């Protein structure tokens, strides 16, 4: 071994001295040494730096006759090469080598570290004689017990994770076959969170070598992991799905990964971590597949009758994995060397016709290849009639702009439709132009051969030529990959001829070819899909594109798919118009061809027989092909097209380029006229029942068709959430928006994300979607998207980089922004076409004249969804405002809505109008309460804590009440009740402040009274409750409308030594207090009602205290639902502190009135009264003893 002084030639004096100090201080965390080839050694180590950083080293050392000749040390510290960390690692190696020499221990061998030093290691080819058990007759159970003891001993000494570290770095091995048939050993490095139930969460992330640097400071990465990652990045080749482990390094890496207890085979979710297993005896052999191809393998001798076959890994020395028992150990296959075994294990299978030649060459290896593949016993020749295989696709001219000078130069034909022909000989395909290897396969040890049949092939080629297809003389490029010459069939001629040839070939030729036994394969990009000719025609009335009218379609069924022929017939009329301006004149038609759309009754314009003659000019064969979509064509019989056009023009005056035919819901009488006219033409009218069926489906939750949850959703939907997804998808299918109004905590977020993912996976998300939420919950949305739908490309349009990101909106699936930024970014957001617009906490849009609401209505989106637990908080105008955004045509203008619904319901308690309103909104508003669907939630107990004010507080309250009562009455008398709102609210505010604490009132008289002893009885009661509740182990949310109240509560909490966190509108870092409370670091959370009443998940709490009541009970419910929501497993107690006899007590009584108004929107059997009347004002301002 070299001496420490030898390092001076390779490491500068300063680095060597600092490295010596690091070594002496014990900073070398791990070190692994392996002899590579000859005099070369590999040293992998980790050394702790001057701070908390851990640096990894990869050192190559060359020692010749005990002398140090070369040191190449790479380190991921800033210096990078032959630094102090490298010196420390080499000094540690010298020390360990000296210790090993003194104790006579063996130097390290690959895979010798599977067991602890105190237990015998599994036998390998290198140490079998020394490590053989004392009793050679030990049964497998005993040997397996020893191996498991080894693994247990390793786990005892392995690094332990702190309780707060839940993430784990995992290593996953698998075998992968390349397209050429070669087999490789792959390693994937993954991180995942270990849940408390012992399972891994769905947050796994795979790393490549470039991302290893991001793990340098990760708490879940141990020093041993750092050494492994360094070794993998230096020695393994990066592949498409992981790292390709070299055969000679794999055992060394696997041994150390086993030590971590985090090495898995194929899937870390379904399998257990691998542990070291006993040696297994392997027997080399060859196995054949169904086609007779043979692959080399090593059959392992099972140690029990129920042991599943283990898998031999291509490593040197050989290792195996037993997935059933989660073991990994050495393979004893002494009849073949590991190098030859690895070469054969990774090789592609041998074709049957080459086995004999392979055997002849391989026999030269002698005993080094103890087993050879089985050669066929005999050869049999067969005559096989080939089956033609026609493949239709698209080719592009290689370097050319057109096929012929007069054709395909048109922009609507940028690609060339072609046909490619193969012949199938009993499973082997041959191209009609090119010949591959001889036709041969194995059957029961017999090599079967066959010859191509040129005569049969020429018959097939002739059929294509007779259909009008020919081989063009120019080179074509298939899929833009490579040019080919004279191999593909195309349709020659000009554009119209090409289209006609292909359409007739697909319509008439393909069925005949299939009937003759041909196999036809059609590529997705082939531009001609000819549908089956329609048979049964029917007019249908449906909800096509709006809510206030029925769409009219002429429906046919093609292969189980409904197709509307009205656009098809419109194309026919447009084509007629293009043929010549004189074809649509009075000489062609009797009476008027075009009829006034507003006055269709009694004007049956009969078509002239000349129309059929014009149509026949378009289709001489009697069949015309009309395009539906981009590539599909519908064959229409001319003799039936003309009567259809007659019916349409008779009733609606259909014109070229006209709008969609539709019947307003207020003009259902048109259905009778249409049915009469259609009956005369022999066409039935359907669909009135279909419209009713759709309405029935939306009448109740669960009535719409079920859809499969999207595959990319990282959550299991609860039954009611699945119904919500079904409902959202159904609305989307029919072009409607809606309001998802579930109670707080029922998972509106996950339902919306599931809907968005379903749209993406169905291929409908060809535009970005927009989500708008309050600023306070943007971080929560970012986290929820990452948690439930990480496959969505998401942009949070907020913060200083907002402007720079506005130009790339179309690159994302989901763009998240705030209501505050919506008016500011209106021009950018309204210029972008969106697939879906989602408005979270949509009650923010309740003011329809506000800038945010106007900007929301101006957005371009296919579907608009409002998410809110409180669609009505104060007045029914708020409901109109939400539907003006989500379903704009549902109610029409605001004036008509107020006249029809709001005034009769709110002013006159009109039960009939209320039922109509509920029936109108029911299809587009889905609301479920926790009592209805979340039956697994623990109980919620509400406790009204009445607090008697003390004498000083009572006197102050009466003084302010008398002053404000007179001021309010004067203002109401002068301006009226509606215009006195500010004065009324100011009076009520001051009274509420006195109830909370007299010090809150910003009046000089109040301050003097507070200074003389007008204390807060409510604060006193709160300070009595908190220690009692906390002593019982309660975890508490304390809500207040007044952030200034927290300024008074805080010093009292400090005096009582009660730890707490706080969240108000001034809190910039919202995540830290939430995390600390959820993690159990503090038992009390002070939250202002406005800043934290929505958007938070605080299920760690089991107690909610409302320090002061708020006007709207829905707002209080939302705050309570921060704790009483999905995920809560403890009973929740809600305390409401109310000062007796005051405005607070009366507010609680008025809350019930608002609650009835909200319920009235959802159910037909209740009524709602006006919200605030003069009597209500007298009630609120009554004396404290009243």
UniProtKB/TrEMBL annotation:
UniProt keyword Transcription regulation, yes or no: no
Helicase C-terminal domain ranges (all copies): 1018-1172
Residue intervals of the SWIM-type domain: 59-94
Keyword entries, A-Z: ATP-binding, Helicase, Hydrolase, Metal-binding, Nucleotide-binding, Zinc, Zinc-finger
GO molecular function: ATP binding; helicase activity; hydrolase activity; zinc ion binding
InterPro entries in the record: Helicase_ATP-bd (IPR014001), Helicase_C-like (IPR001650), P-loop_NTPase (IPR027417), SNF2-like_sf (IPR038718), SNF2/RAD54-like_C (IPR049730), SNF2_N (IPR000330), Znf_SWIM (IPR007527)
SUPFAM superfamilies registered for this protein in UniProt: P-loop containing nucleoside triphosphate hydrolases
Keyword Transcription regulation: no
Domain Helicase ATP-binding: 729-889
Chain intervals for the UniProt region annotation (Disordered): 104-131
Compositionally skewed regions (Low complexity) per UniProt: 110-126
Record's protein name: Helicase SNF2
Originating organism: Azospirillum palustre
């Amino acid at each position: 071994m070299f001496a420490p002084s030898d390092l001076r030639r390779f490491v500068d004096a300063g680095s060597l001295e600092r490295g010596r100090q690091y070594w002496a201080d014990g900073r070398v965390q791990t070190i692994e040494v392996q002899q590579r080839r000859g005099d070369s050694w590999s040293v992998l180590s980790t050394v702790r730096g001057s701070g908390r950083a851990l640096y990894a080293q990869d050192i190559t050392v060359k020692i010749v006759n005990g002398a140090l000749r070369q040191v190449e040390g790479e380190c991921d510290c800033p210096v990078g090469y032959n630094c102090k960390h490298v010196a420390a690692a080499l000094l540690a190696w010298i020390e360990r080598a000296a210790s090993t020499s003194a104790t006579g221990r063996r130097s390290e061998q690959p895979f010798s570290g599977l067991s602890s030093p105190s237990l015998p290691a599994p036998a390998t080819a290198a140490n079998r004689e020394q490590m053989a058990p004392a009793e050679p007759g030990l049964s497998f159970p005993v040997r397996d017990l020893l191996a498991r003891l080894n693994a247990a001993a390793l786990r005892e000494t392995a690094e332990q994770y702190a309780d707060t570290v839940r993430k784990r770095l995992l290593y996953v091995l698998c075998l992968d076959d390349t397209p050429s048939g070669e087999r490789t050993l792959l390693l994937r490095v993954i991180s995942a969170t270990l849940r408390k139930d012992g399972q891994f969460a769905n947050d796994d992330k795979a790393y490549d070598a470039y991302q290893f640097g991001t793990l340098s400071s990760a708490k879940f990465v141990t020093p041993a992991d750092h050494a492994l990652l360094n070794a993998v990045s230096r020695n393994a080749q990066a592949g498409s799905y992981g790292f390709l482990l070299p055969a000679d390094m794999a055992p060394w890496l696997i041994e150390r990964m086993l030590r971590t207890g985090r090495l898995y085979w194929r899937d870390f979710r379904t399998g257990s971590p691998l542990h070291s297993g006993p040696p297994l005896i392997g027997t080399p052999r060859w196995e054949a597949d169904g086609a007779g191809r043979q692959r080399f393998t090593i059959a392992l001798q099972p140690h029990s009758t129920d042991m599943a076959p283990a898998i031999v890994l291509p490593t040197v020395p050989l290792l195996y994995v037993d997935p059933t028992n989660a073991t990994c150990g050495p393979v004893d296959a002494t009849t073949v060397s590991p190098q030859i075994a690895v070469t054969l294990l990774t090789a592609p299978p041998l074709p049957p016709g080459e086995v004999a030649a392979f055997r002849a060459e391989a026999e030269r290896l002698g005993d080094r290849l103890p087993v050879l593949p089985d050669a066929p016993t005999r050869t049999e020749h067969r005559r096989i009639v080939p089956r033609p295989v026609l493949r239709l696709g698209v080719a592009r001219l290689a370097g050319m702009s057109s096929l012929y000078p007069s054709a395909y130069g048109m922009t609507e034909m940028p690609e060339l439709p072609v046909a490619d022909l193969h012949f199938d000989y009993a499973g082997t395909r041959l191209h009609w132009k090119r010949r591959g290897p001889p036709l041969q396969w194995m059957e029961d040890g017999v090599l079967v051969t066959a010859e191509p049949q040129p005569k049969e092939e020429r018959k097939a080629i002739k059929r294509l030529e007779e259909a009008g297809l020919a081989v063009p003389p120019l080179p074509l490029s298939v899929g833009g990959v490579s040019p080919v010459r004279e191999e593909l069939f195309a349709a020659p001629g000009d554009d119209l001829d090409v289209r006609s040839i292909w359409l007739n070939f697909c319509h008439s030729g393909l069925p005949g070819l299939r009937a003759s036994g041909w196999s036809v394969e059609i590529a997705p990009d082939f531009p001609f899909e000819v549908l089956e000719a329609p048979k049964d025609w029917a007019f249908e009335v449906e909800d096509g594109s709006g809510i206030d009218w029925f769409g009219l379609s002429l429906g046919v069924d093609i292969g189980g798919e409904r197709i509307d022929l009205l656009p098809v017939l419109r194309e026919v009329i447009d084509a007629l118009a293009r043929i010549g301006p004189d074809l649509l004149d009075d000489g062609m038609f009797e009476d008027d061809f075009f009829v006034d759309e507003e006055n269709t009754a009694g004007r049956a314009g009969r078509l002239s027989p000349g129309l059929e003659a014009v149509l026949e000019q378009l289709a001489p064969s009697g069949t015309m092909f009309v395009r539906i979509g981009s590539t599909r064509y519908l064959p229409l019989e001319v003799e039936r097209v003309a009567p259809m056009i007659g019916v349409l023009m008779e009733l609606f005056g259909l014109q070229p380029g006209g709008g969609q035919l539709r019947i307003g819901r207020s003009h259902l009488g048109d259905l009778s006229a249409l049915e009469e006219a259609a009956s005369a033409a022999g066409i039935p009218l359907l669909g009135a029942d279909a419209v009713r069926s759709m309405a029935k489906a939306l009448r109740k939750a669960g009535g719409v068709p079920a859809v499969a949850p999207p595959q990319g959703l990282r959550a299991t939907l609860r039954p009611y959430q699945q119904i919500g997804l079904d409902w959202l998808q159904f609305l989307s299918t029919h072009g409607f928006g809606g309001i998802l109004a579930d109670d707080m905590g029922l998972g509106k977020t996950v339902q919306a994300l599931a809907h968005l993912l379903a749209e993406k996976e169905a291929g409908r998300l060809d535009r970005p979607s927009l989500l708008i939420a309050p600023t306070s919950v943007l971080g929560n949305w970012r986290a929820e998207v990452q948690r439930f739908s990480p496959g969505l490309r998401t942009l949070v349009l907020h913060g200083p980089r907002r402007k720079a990101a506005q130009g790339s909106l179309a690159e994302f699936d989901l763009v998240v922004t705030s209501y505050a930024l919506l008016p500011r970014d209106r021009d950018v957001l309204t210029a972008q076409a969106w697939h879906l617009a989602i408005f979270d906490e949509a009650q923010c849009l309740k003011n329809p004249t506000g800038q945010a609401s106007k900007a929301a209505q101006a957005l371009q989106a296919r579907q608009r969804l409002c998410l809110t637990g409180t669609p009505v908080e104060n007045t029914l105008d708020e409901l109109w405002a939400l539907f003006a955004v989500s379903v704009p045509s549902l109610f029409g203008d605001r004036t008509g809505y107020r006249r029809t619904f709001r005034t009769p319901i709110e002013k006159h308690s009109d039960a009939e109008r209320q039922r109509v309103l509920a029936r109108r909104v029911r299809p587009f508003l889905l609301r479920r309460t926790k009592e209805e669907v979340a039956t697994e939630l623990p109980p919620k107990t509400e406790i009204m804590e009445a607090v008697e004010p003390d004498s000083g507080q009572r006197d102050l309250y009466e003084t302010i009440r008398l002053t404000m009562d007179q001021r309010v009455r004067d203002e109401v008398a002068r301006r009226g009740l509606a215009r006195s709102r500010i004065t009324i609210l100011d009076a009520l505010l001051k009274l509420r402040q006195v109830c909370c604490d007299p010090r809150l009132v910003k009046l000089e008289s109040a301050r003097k009274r507070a200074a003389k002893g007008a204390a807060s009885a409510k604060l006193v009661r709160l300070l009595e409750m908190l220690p009692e509740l906390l002593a019982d182990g309660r975890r508490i949310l304390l809500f207040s409308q007044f952030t200034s109240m927290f300024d008074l509560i805080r010093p009292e909490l400090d005096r009582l030594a009660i730890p707490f966190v706080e969240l108000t509108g001034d809190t910039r870092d919202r995540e830290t207090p939430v995390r600390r409370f959820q993690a159990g670091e503090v038992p009390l959370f002070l939250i202002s009602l406005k800043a934290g009443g929505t958007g938070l998940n605080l299920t760690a709490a089991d107690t909610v205290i409302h320090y002061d009541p708020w006007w709207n009970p829905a707002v209080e419910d939302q705050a309570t639902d921060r704790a009483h929501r999905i995920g809560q497993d403890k009973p929740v107690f809600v305390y409401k502190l109310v000062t007796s006899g005051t405005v607070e007590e009366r507010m609680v009584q008025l809350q019930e009135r608002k609650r009835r108004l909200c319920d009235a929107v959802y159910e037909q059997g209740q009524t709602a009264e006006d919200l605030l009347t003069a009597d209500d004002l007298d009630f609120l301002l009554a004396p404290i003893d009243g």
